[in-house]
Amino acid sequence: MKKLITLCTACLLALSGCNGDTSTTPSPELSETPVATLAVETPVPTTEAPDATPLPTDTLSPEVQPTETLPLPTGTPFLWDGDPDSLTLNDFPTQLSSGEQVLEAVTALGPDDAGLYLVCQIPDQDTWLYAACGPGDKQGLILRVGTEWRYDTIPFLSDQAYMPAMAYGDFDGDQSQELAVVPYLGGNTGGNTWGLYMVDFSTGSWDVQQFTPGDYVAILSLSVSSSYNADANTVTITAGDAQLTLDMTELGFPVPGGEVVVSPGSLALFTTEGDDLYATFSLDLNAPAIPEGSLDQAVLLHTEVVYTGSAFGLNAPSLSLPEI
Fold first, then answer.
1. I need a labelling partner for 288 at 20 to 30 A (CA). Which of 5, 150, 218, 312 fits?
2. What is the dihedral angle through the alpha carbons of 87, 93, 99, 104, rounded to the nearest 10 degrees?
3. Among candidates 50, 5, 4, 303, which has minimal Cα distance to 177?
């Protein structure tokens, strides 16, 4: 059950994260703490391999260390039974696949087949993200750090073939590294919705928290308001201390047919800068005479994303017009 909490006097609202279904292998010791940067840009997310830094040291150690070695790079996708617990270290592909290659390979799978594809990587931190598809409609992501991996039922397939991005950082300020994973969740024409998952290693296991669309839409709906001036045909949008006034006539609607109101739009992007998380959301303008979705990205809201280790929130919003 989602829970709204107040994080600061600036009316920061947060919602508790939730975990997905998982499957794990025995937990080996990780000896270094990684740091990376992530930038998700429309239309394709990108990652940059950072300078080598230590990996997390707070995961569990197995009684016997694995002795398997990775195979040489190959262009042939690995076909398996779809059970993450049946994988061995040698089964993971080592050649990075583009979104188009993954979509083509998945389309060619039979109804009882399953494919495994490397879609994102931070090699200096021995961190790898794999797309797993099949049998049937089953799909998810497998995160591997060193010789340990975990499966989560996170959808990744879309017609746009955008693959996930990821980055390390101390996002909750607890002096240990978390991993932010940003998958593409879908979107209509002109819209892009990305998700945010946080992998927290501090408890000795891989605790996965999700900032769901339902969570951030609820925060935006409560924290963003609008005021319509019918005489001037203008609407003023307020988010925290930020305000922006728009002339509806200049936007092409001299007679909107009634009060103009604001609501969350279809754009949701997440980025990181060092240990800081940021988000960009679009705001939609609605009125009786405005066709649905025609002003879906009339305004952009930029905000900090706060992660506390168990909840997400938004803080210090600003408003701007999209660049044409």
1. 218
2. -80
3. 50
Q: Give Cα 223 to chain centroid, integer Å.
A: 21
Q: Which of 312, 68, 293, 296 has its CA nearest to residue 180? A: 312
Q: How many CB atoms lie within 10 A of CB 302?
A: 17
Pairing of strands 193-194, 139-145: unpaired
Could you tell me the two tokens for 132? Answer: 């797993």
- Of how many residues is the chain composed? 324
Structure tokens at 323: 């660049």
Residue type, 302: H
Radius of gyration from C-alpha coordinates of the chain: 22
Q: What is the SS3 assignment for 304?
A: strand
Each residue's pLDDT tens digit, 160-189: 889 999 999 999 999 999 999 999 988 655
Q: Which residue has the tokens 């940003």?
A: 182
Chain-centroid distance, C-alpha 230: 39
- Name which of 36, 39, 38, 37 is nearest 52 in CA terms: 36
Give dist(CA 157, CA 164) in Å, integer.
10
What is the pLDDT at residue 79? 66
- 123 DSSP 8-state letter: G
Segments of the chain scoring below 50 in pLDDT: 1-76
The first and second tokens of residue 290, run together, are: 């405005």
Question: Judging by beta carbons within 10 Å of its beta carbon (0-12, 13-18, 19+), is residue 262 exposed, middle or buried?
Answer: buried
Yes or no: say if 167 and 37 are a contact pair by the CB < 8 Å rule: yes
Count of H-run helices and E-run strands, the chain: 2, 23
**What's the CA gap between 220 and 163, in Å, rounded?**
26
How is the chain split among helix, strand and coil, in percent rounded to 5? 10, 45, 50
Check if the beta carbon of residue 319 is closer than 8 Å to that of residue 303. no
Q: Establish whether the linkage from the previous residue to 111 is cis, with ω within 30° of 0.
A: no
Residues 6+ apart with CB under 8 A from 175: none
